[in-house]
Please model this.
Amino acid sequence: MVDALAGRSTLLASVIRPWQARSDFLWMREVVDQLAQGHAETALTKMAVKGQLYTEPDRERTMHALIEEWKKDDRPLKNKVIIAGLRNEVATLNQQAREHLIAAGHLNRDQARILPLLQRDGLLDHREFIPGDRIVITKNNPALGLVNGATGTLLGFDGQDFLSIQLDEPNAKGASRILIPITFHHLDHSYSLTTFKSQGRTFDSAYVFVNPVMAHREWIYVAASRTRYRTSLYVPENEIDQGQTEDLQHQEEKRGDELTPMQKLSRCLARSHDQLCPTHRGFSSVVEIVDRRTQKAKQE
Model:
């Protein structure tokens, strides 16, 4: 409601935005504390009352709803973020965000270039980049003054050999505007980020795609605590059951088949990382479990 009013005119926005920054964030701080302590049902109930919890029947419609709300947000691109847990989810959301910006005329595909990017498995992938694109650095490079997770805006292509980047924060050398060689293959789009890449950053608003299979207390705490004002959660309802395991208990000791979708989701978000990954093999093992369960959900 408040965001809708702010979007109606510059005058209203000039009044509402400062008020939001000062006043309308205390309830979200309480929600973040509740999520950190494992009181997920209380936190989710409050978010639902505030209109910041969205559920859709499936993944495709959930991502569509998220992008639609992200599109309505009139904040500068660097001040809002889409957060997801898995790299393939981030890639899909980045693609959908860019397609909107291209269709709206904010990015000009006539100026696009396809660049090779080095993936974590060592294989080369390719991405389209357009001046105005939001980017994120994916590997440290002391010689260039770059750190993993640094974000900025692609200003343009300097000849055939360099990218001109405006960093959001000055790099280790104190420079905000830098040239990156085309041969530097460690960058990606940053409309959407993983929770890992978003750590340590603060945005005005965050749109969080919740994968119930991989979400846990530590993950949702990081995702929900990235903003000064607005955090919204988007959940595919048909995947909530895939996140249920026998060791997850509801606070009222109900059986799984007696729980509402909200209560089942709460169980997912209240569990610890160690419950999801008891073998302590690190984050890669979580991804393996998630990939298997997600594939099972798609097959069903």
About this structure: Residues 3 and 73 are 8 Å apart (CA to CA). Residues 279-300 have pLDDT under 50 and may be disordered. DSSP finds eleven helices and twelve strands in the chain. The radius of gyration is 20 Å.
